[in-house]
């Protein structure tokens, strides 16, 4: 009879990485001999599973369909990622429309998978953890591709992406996270710098924390009113140095049709100018 310790050693022998299930439930999927799965996880990044079957390695990120993996490991990976919460607690629906730009079909499919993965995390960043469970089961976002100038825009629950842009910048999947943030924001009275600052904060600090060093802030000339990455960097400082709840509070105020100025006055008894000055001095 194998002891628990024996089982553990057997498991470690077939698992290249130390992800040891905390319980050995009878129906927990196990891996066949000679098959191994390694999990990698970086904070705020989708987890990666690397499966090795007969010496052939397959690597997928958590937003990719599991059928990309060899059949022998799918259930095991599904069980692990469900247990660690890597799979979204809510799965939204995404409808893709490439009627006007059929050449975008492959990119669209990948963008759709990323959107399904990131959307609940965007809701959590803006509205808090409890809001995720309240996303309606039939919540649907349309992802439309058009031959147009510009990059992308969001209107209601529809995101329109330029097929010309993705041809030039095929790695720019982050634009989908930015636009999906606008879908969650749905401010009736949109204010440029706060709205675009939040969308880029979610893109660069929640979903792509390793790619954010794009902006050089010039203490003389930069301003939080520029929106996008500059404002996102300021918001990141606010969250780290002043108030971990900053983003949720700001989003709530903007939803209630307040503007940024009024929010800073009510919440922090100061102006964004004064805090920006303080932030710039730290650079
Ligand atoms: Zn935007």
The total of beta strands comes to: 7
Helical residues, percent: 40-55%
Percent of sequence in beta strands: 5-15%
| Radius of gyration using CA atoms only | 22 Å
In what order do the strands lie side by side in the largest sheet? Answer: 4-5-7-6
Structure at a glance:
The protein has 283 residues and is α/β, with parallel strands linked by helices.
Write the layout of secondary structure elements.
Blueprint: H1 4-14, E1 35-40, E2 48-53, E3 56-61, H2 71-83, E4 93-97, H3 105-127, H4 129-133, E5 140-146, E6 152-155, E7 158-162, H5 163-168, H6 174-185, H7 192-207, H8 228-242, H9 246-255, H10 260-268, H11 272-281
Parallel strand pairs: 4-5, 5-7
Antiparallel strand pairs: 1-2, 2-3, 6-7
The protein binds zinc ion.
């Amino acid at each position: 009879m194998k002891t628990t310790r024996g089982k553990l050693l057997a498991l470690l022998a077939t698992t290249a990485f130390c992800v040891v299930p905390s319980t050995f439930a009878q129906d927990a999927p196990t891996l066949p001999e000679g098959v191994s799965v390694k999990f990698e996880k970086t904070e705020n990044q989708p987890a990666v599973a690397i499966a090795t079957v007969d010496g052939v390695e397959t690597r997928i990120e958590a937003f990719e369909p599991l059928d990309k993996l060899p059949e022998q490991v799918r259930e095991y990976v599904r069980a692990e990622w469900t247990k660690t919460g890597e799979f979204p607690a809510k799965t939204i629906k995404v409808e893709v429309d490439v009627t006007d730009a059929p050449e975008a079909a492959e990119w669209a499919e990948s963008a759709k998978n990323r959107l399904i993965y990131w959307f609940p995390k965007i809701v959590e960043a803006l509205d808090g953890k409890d809001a995720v469970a309240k996303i309606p089961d039939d919540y649907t976002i349309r992802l439309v591709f058009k031959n147009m100038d510009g990059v992308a825009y969001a209107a209601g629950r529809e995101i329109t992406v330029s097929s010309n842009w993705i041809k030039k910048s095929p790695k720019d999947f982050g634009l989908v996270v930015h636009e999906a943030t606008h879908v969650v924001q749905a401010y009736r009275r949109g204010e440029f710098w706060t709205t675009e600052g939040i969308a880029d904060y979610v893109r660069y600090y929640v979903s792509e924390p390793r790619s954010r060093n794009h902006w050089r802030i010039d203490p003389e000339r930069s301003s939080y009113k520029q929106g996008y990455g500059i404002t996102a960097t300021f918001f990141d400082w606010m969250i780290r140095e002043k108030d971990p709840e900053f983003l949720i509070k700001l989003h709530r105020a903007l939803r209630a049709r307040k503007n940024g100025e009024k929010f800073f006055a009510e919440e922090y008894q100061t102006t964004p100018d004064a805090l920006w000055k303080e932030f710039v001095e730290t650079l």
